[in-house]
Amino acid sequence: MRPGDIKILLVDDEASILQFLELGLRNEGYQVMTASDGLTAVNLVREFHHHIAILDVMMPGMDGFEVCSMIKKMAHTSVIMLTARDEIDDRVKGLKLGADDYVVKPFSFQELLARIEARLRNQFPHLLNEVTIGPFRINDQRKEILFNDSMLSLSNTEYDLLRYLVINHGIVLSKSKILDEVWGYDFGGQENVVEVYVSTLRDKLEDDDHVLIRTIRGAGYRIDLP
Predict the structure, then answer these.
(1) Which residues have C-beta within 8 Å of that of residue 126, sequence separation ≥ 6?
(2) Domain of 42?
(3) Where does the record locate the signal sequence feature (predicted)?
(4) Residue 88: how many other CB atoms lie within 10 Å
């Protein structure tokens, strides 16, 4: 991962939180721009061209929800919202407006770093040299995946499928969703092609008992990692 290539926009009206996060993220190597109100944040979007926006929900004037809605229309960005309230309605509202993740205050800095890295893996994989997720090491530039430090021999489609499953570990992925994301929306084949490729991956991972790539009956597949 090259943090120096990654830009993060921090928006929070609490100066202490803003300073703490800015210092921590700069120490991790990220480029950081800060704003203490929503209007300033929106104006910065045009000049900073950030990858990740971290928005506080409760701000005077233009709140985090409004900022999220506006910047999602202005730029290709991932939004992580900070909220002091773990309310379902708040999370649903934010997600409908385009938020990609939520972190509830108080939170650990390491948790926020993990959320940032997860968003980068999903939305900006070209910024990552190599990503380690559990026993997997994924190198997008070389189109290689190592499992427990052993190189897997994968076709292009096997690589794309395994990468998609690993990056979304813990999430049940339906066959139709997998087809759309791996084979493409215009793929005219049958869903059973997913079963064939999953079976091949299980063989290569020596996952005979299906404990790594799990079949969730009637729903799809899920990779479980430690």
Answers:
(1) 140
(2) 3-127
(3) none
(4) 8
